TrEMBL record:
InterPro entries: NAD(P)-bd_dom_sf (IPR036291), Sc_DH/Rdtase_CS (IPR020904), SDR_fam (IPR002347). It holds the Pfam family adh_short_C2. It comes from Pseudocercospora fijiensis (strain CIRAD86). The keyword NADP applies. PROSITE patterns: ADH_SHORT. This is Uncharacterized protein. Keywords: NADP, Oxidoreductase. The keyword Lyase does not apply. GO terms for molecular function: oxidoreductase activity, acting on NAD(P)H, oxygen as acceptor; oxidoreductase activity, acting on the CH-OH group of donors, NAD or NADP as acceptor.
């Protein structure tokens, strides 16, 4: 009789995970975590190729965990680019700014999810899709004007619920679970310079949650692993919000 280990529920061996926005702080954190749990990882981002430094990091991660880690350049606002990228995966505050943010965060997310679902349907396999929303989908950010961002992340929540309904039990294909992760404020190389210039903004944001601090990239890895793994096999159309209670005030 095999020995039961609860941690095995979170293993991702034999699975390939596609991480869009893969060269950002969260994406680079995920490649380490997902590889550790046994997944092969394909990073998707806009740059033609990662920097030499990033390439070395990816090689080290792949070697350490004996996983495949690869990169595909893709403009997620272009359907043609997304379709081309996923073919490769299968085989191996002005109105302009508002529209761009909506295109990236909503249209881009939809195009990538649809392309991935088509692969799963074609190969007759079930799977899990995790989208990044934000606590900003529920609450308005204080001290900054982020109308487009907040709106786009709210749309991602409903997009995930809708696709979960469409792909969960259509009678023709194995089920696909679709969920979202909604992080609270994260300290990253992108936010740190802003806080150095406007320390009062960091104070405002930290005092807005129940733990009185910013989160780190590493604190959001386990949410994604959980939603991808068999440990969440009965979880779909759900938002996992990790915001230190910010939205509960």
């Amino acid at each position: 009789m095999p020995v039961y280990r609860p941690e095995d529920l979170f293993r991702l061996d034999g699975r390939t995970v596609v991480v869009t926005g893969g060269l950002g702080s969260v994406g680079m954190g995920l490649v380490r975590t997902l590889s550790y749990y046994g997944a092969d990882v394909i990073l998707v981002d806009l740059l033609p190729s990662p920097s030499e430094e990033t390439c070395e990091v990816l090689k080290t991660v792949a070697s350490t965990h004996k996983r495949e880690v690869s990169y595909i350049s893709c403009d997620v606002t272009s359907e043609e680019s997304v379709l081309d990228a996923f073919k490769k995966i299968e085989s191996t505050a002005s109105i302009d700014n508002f529209r761009k943010i909506m295109e990236i965060n909503v249209t881009g997310t939809f195009l990538c999810a649809r392309a991935m679902a088509r692969i799963m349907h074609r190969q007759k396999v079930s799977g899990s899709i995790v989208m990044f929303a934000s606590m900003s989908a529920t609450n308005v950010n204080k001290g900054v004007d982020t109308c487009a961002y907040n709106t786009s992340k709210s749309a991602v929540l409903q997009l995930a619920r809708s696709l979960a309904a469409e792909w969960g039990h259509d009678g023709e294909h194995p089920p696909i679970r679709v969920n979202t992760v909604s992080p609270g404020y994260i300290m990253t190389p992108m936010t740190r310079p802003t806080f150095e210039e406007f320390p009062e903004l960091q104070k405002l944001w930290q005092e807005g949650n129940m733990l009185g601090r910013m989160s780190t990239v590493d604190e959001h890895q386990s949410s994604v692993v959980f939603l991808l793994s068999d440990g969440s096999s009965y979880v779909t159309a759900t938002d996992l919000r990790a915001d230190a209670g910010h939205c509960s005030w």
